C-alpha cells in the first residue's frame, strides 16, 4: 500500500466524528512508523478532513471533520451547543434528538478546530476558568444573584478587573476565576493592591460586584451578589 492509498484508507475507514483514533493505533495497523502516520494525519488535516482534539496530548486524539456541506458556525455558537448537548439529549425523545444530533456533532468538531486555532479567545478563557463548576446550580441555590453572576462571567471572559464589596471592604481582583468547595461557590483572583497575593471569597458573603476600570477608577455597574 503506497502513501496515497494509505491516506485514502485512513480517511474512509479509520477517521470518525465520534470516536478518536491515535497515531500508535494506526502505525500498528498499517505496519509503518508513527512518524509516517503523523505525516499522514498532517496531510489529511491540511486538506480539511481530519483534526486533532488535543495537539499537546499523549497520545493525540484524531477525529474526522464534518463534510464541507455541513453547518457552519462561529466558535461561540459551537461552544454553546456543545455546552447544552447533554441537557437537550436528556430532555428530548430519542427519535427527535437523533434527527438533530448532527448539529451537535458539527458543533463538537467546529469547537475543537476553532479553539485550537485561537487559544486567546474569550470563549476558551471562560471555559478554562469555569471548568467543573455548575454555575446554574449556584444561581438556583441563591449562592449568587443573577446580575452579579453576569458581571462575574463578563469579567472572566474579558479578563477585566473585578471590584468586590464585602463586609471587610472593597477588593480589586485580577485574573478572576470561580471554584466550588463544600457545595458552595467561591470567587478567586490576584489582589491588585498586594502583588502576589491571592484572594478568595464565598460569593454568598459578597454584597456587590462590578467590573472595574483601572484607568478611570470608575465602577460602571454595581451588581448585588444576592
Backbone shape: elongated
- Identify the quaternary structure here: single chain
Q: Tell me the distance between the termini.
A: 66 Å
- Strand content of the residues, in percent? 15-25%
State the helicity in percent bands. 40-55%
Count every beta strand, where a strand is a DSSP E run of 2 or more residues: 8
Number of helical stretches of at least 4 residues: 8
What does this entry look like structurally?
There is one protein chain. With 226 residues, this protein is α+β, with helices and mostly antiparallel strands. It is 45% helix and 20% strand. The chain contains 8 helices and 8 strands. It has helices spanning 3-14, 23-30, 34-46, 75-91, 94-117, 122-129, 135-140, 146-158, and strands spanning 50-52, 62-64, 161-166, 169-181, 184-191, 198-202, 208-212, 223-224. It starts with a helix and ends with a strand.
Briefly, what is this?
With 226 residues, the chain is α+β, with helices and mostly antiparallel strands. It has eight helices and eight strands.
Describe the structure using short key phrases.
226 residues; alpha+beta; six-stranded antiparallel sheet; two-stranded antiparallel ribbon; 8 strands; 20% strand
What's the layout of helices and strands?
Elements: H1 3-14, H2 23-30, H3 34-46, E1 50-52, E2 62-64, H4 75-91, H5 94-117, H6 122-129, H7 135-140, H8 146-158, E3 161-166, E4 169-181, E5 184-191, E6 198-202, E7 208-212, E8 223-224
Antiparallel strand pairs: 1-2, 3-4, 3-7, 4-5, 5-6, 7-8
Helix pairs in contact: 1-3, 2-3, 4-5, 6-8
